Q: What sequence folds into this?
């Protein structure tokens, strides 16, 4: 189980971790000299049953919120640390808001420095903390008073952590491997090491992976989980990987880089999201507000395009698109946090719905309806909703990648939902039965309409059908649908022309007469046939009329 501290600066987070594990997580000379945590620190504790508690100590100072955000991404439990002699402070509020925005609801409140207050004051502080939590929508969180340097209350807290670890629900290990790197360094005699939280999948020793930011291929030489050598590491664990790759070094890897399976190298600059604005904001979040985006262990600028209403009120949620100045990597369900342009305060956060969205039509009612359908947290439910709603089917490859579904997993979902697969990769689509039948009906109606507008035409081309449908279908999918309809004798084909079995070319009596005469004149039993000009003169009509009539005759 991965546990992270949170809370205001100088409330005793590092001292608490030291009391729980025996490790001082302040590793930088600056931290030791100033007694102030500025970057992430790590420690672990082996439990009696062989399990491991991994601890991430985060800085509490407002200047280092960026580092704090990188440390809490993907954790199982948070220790919200509040000093008894200070009570609730600004970073207490902001850190709790960040935990909420990241969907971290498993929280233990630790009241530190209890030796600095009188017993009656401790009760008052405890009440203040409980009232604060209720105001923020939190109830029934365990509260543990401690004095870390003297060991007071530490054993009870340890027992609570052991209990939580024992009954922790393991994360589902599925999807391709993806790890958010928060440190990269060289270790003498070992080489390049990267550390971070595994968000999905598994990694094996010897496996090849990709640094998504620069497409560099690397090989995993060794895996360590909580300082123990492993053959494999999986989702929900923090690990250290010894990696090697051409041109890859400590300076080429920054915090925020994703180390992942190469199939997940799909960069994006636009992501549609469910966005919640903190109720502590004093004004609505307006369209095109510049912000700082924190996702995984990464941090980058982003504009917020509000998709409905022009703004989102404090304490409210809405649909938005995050527009980025350069490529980033994200998947459906990823949690994120937004801070204001000056990086002084946390303003909003939420969950990614579509990581590969486009600018065109992003706020149309039809697109909003699709985004609402995509907002379901269950992947199968999302696919079912999209297949039910979409006239032109769901593009399978982008859906599978955005939800991090390898082929066997997406195959199983499609089978379980009874959906139809149409076409070949990479343009394959999935339809629900009713929508596929609906497409056939749309094609029939389109061809029928073309017959009415062009009664003298043998039928409709694929381009004609595309225009008449009014909904874009990939040409390969349309061709396949037409082929199936021909096999079922719902339509007929003459070369590249498609027509209904009931269709007869509308030809007048005059045109029939012209064709009869023209056949004899232009195909004599002997000699050279006349030119069209000569034939038209013999028939007694204009050349243009003859040409038009002959074109009709060719189609009969």
A:
């Amino acid at each position: 189980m991965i546990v992270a501290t949170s809370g205001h600066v100088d409330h005793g987070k590092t001292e608490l971790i030291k009391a729980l594990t025996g490790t001082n997580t302040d590793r930088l000379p600056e931290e030791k000299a100033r007694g102030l945590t500025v970057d992430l620190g790590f420690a672990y504790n082996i439990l009696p049953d062989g399990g491991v508690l991994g601890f991430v100590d985060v800085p509490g100072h407002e200047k280092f919120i960026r580092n704090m955000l990188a440390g809490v991404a993907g954790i199982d439990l948070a220790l919200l640390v509040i000093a008894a002699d200070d009570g609730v402070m600004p970073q207490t509020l902001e850190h709790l808001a960040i935990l909420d925005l990241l969907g971290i609801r498993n929280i233990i409140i630790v009241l530190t420095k209890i030796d600095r207050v009188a017993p009656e004051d401790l009760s008052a502080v405890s009440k203040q903390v409980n009232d604060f939590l209720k105001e923020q929508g939190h109830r029934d969180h365990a509260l543990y008073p401690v004095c870390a340097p003297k060991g007071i209350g530490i054993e009870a807290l340890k027992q609570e952590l052991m209990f939580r670890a024992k009954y922790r629900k393991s994360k589902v290990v599925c999807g391709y491997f993806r790890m958010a790197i928060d440190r990269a360094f060289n270790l003498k005699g070992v080489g390049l090491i990267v550390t971070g939280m595994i968000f999905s999948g598994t990694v094996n020793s010897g496996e090849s992976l990709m640094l998504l930011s620069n497409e560099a291929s690397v090989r995993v030489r060794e895996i360590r989980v909580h300082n123990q050598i492993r053959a494999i590491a999986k989702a929900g664990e923090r690990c250290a990987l010894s990696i090697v790759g051409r041109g890859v070094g400590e300076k080429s890897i920054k915090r925020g880089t994703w180390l992942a399976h190469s199939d997940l190298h799909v960069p994006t600059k636009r992501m549609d999201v469910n966005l919640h604005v903190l109720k502590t904001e004093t004004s609505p979040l307006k369209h095109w507000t510049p912000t700082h985006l924190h996702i995984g262990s990464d941090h980058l600028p982003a504009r917020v395009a509000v998709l409905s209403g022009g703004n989102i009120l404090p304490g409210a949620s809405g649909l938005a698109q995050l527009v980025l100045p350069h490529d980033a990597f994200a998947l459906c369900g990823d949690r994120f946090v937004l801070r204001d342009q000056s990086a002084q305060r946390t303003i909003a956060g939420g969950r990614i719905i579509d990581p590969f969205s486009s600018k065109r039509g992003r706020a149309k009612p039809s697109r909003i309806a699709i985004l609402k359908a995509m907002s379901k947290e269950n992947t199968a439910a999302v696919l079912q909703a999209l297949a039910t709603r979409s006239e032109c089917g769901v593009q399978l490859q982008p859906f599978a990648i955005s939800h991090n579904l390898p082929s066997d997993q997406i195959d199983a979902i499609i089978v379980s939902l009874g959906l139809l697969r149409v076409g070949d990769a990479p343009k394959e689509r999935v339809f629900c039965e009713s929508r596929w039948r609906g497409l056939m009906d749309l094609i029939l109606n389109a061809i029928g309409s073309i017959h009415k507008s062009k009664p003298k035409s043998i039928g409709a081309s694929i381009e004609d059908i595309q225009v008449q449908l009014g909904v874009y279908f990939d040409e390969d999918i349309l061709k396949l649908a037409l082929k199936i309809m021909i096999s079922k004798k719902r339509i007929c084909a003459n070369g590249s022309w498609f027509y209904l079995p009931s269709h007869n070319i509308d030809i007048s009596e005059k045109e029939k007469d012209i064709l009869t005469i023209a056949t004899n004149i232009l195909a004599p039993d002997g000699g050279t046939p006349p030119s069209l000009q000569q034939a038209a003169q013999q028939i007694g009509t204009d050349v243009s009329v003859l040409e038009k009539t002959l074109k009709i005759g060719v189609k009969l």
